[in-house]
Amino acid sequence: MGVKHGRDYEGILTDLTEAIGRIPDRYVFFEMDEEEWSRLGVTEQLEVDEALAEDLFYALGEESVIPVGSGVVIHDKDQHRIHLLIGEEELTFVPLI
Questions:
Q1: C-alpha–C-alpha distance, residues 97 and 81, integer Å
Q2: Nearest to 44 by CA among 36, 68, 33
């Protein structure tokens, strides 16, 4: 189902993919270790990030908080944003409208 949004889905997906790339150990979401991740080429890593962004977009429609490696992805329905944090520090957010 995904989250409610007013922006173009492709734009949200692009921004979310870029934002996810800021979580250094995001690969653990797919049960990969650092060695497996480092063996992937840049193009393959981007493809994994895009798949993760798409999975998160749809999962956030059901779960408002999803851990991703050392980070957490939060759907803020009131502000129409997806926030990405590591600990208490916000890395970035993706606007949905």
A1: 8
A2: 36
Cα-Cα end-to-end distance for the chain: 17
Looking at the domain assignment, is residue 2 inside a domain?
no
Q: Which residue range forms the structural domain that includes residue 50? A: 9-95
Per-residue pLDDT in tens (0 to 9) along the chain, 97 residues: 678 888 999 999 999 999 999 999 999 999 999 999 999 999 999 999 999 999 999 999 999 999 999 999 999 999 999 999 998 888 899 999 9
In the chain, count of helices (H) and strands (E)? Answer: 3, 4
Residue 61 lies in a domain: yes
Residue 3 resides in a domain: no
Q: What is the pTM of this model?
A: 0.91
- Number of structural domains, the chain? 1
Q: What six digits make up the tokens of 62? A: 């059901």
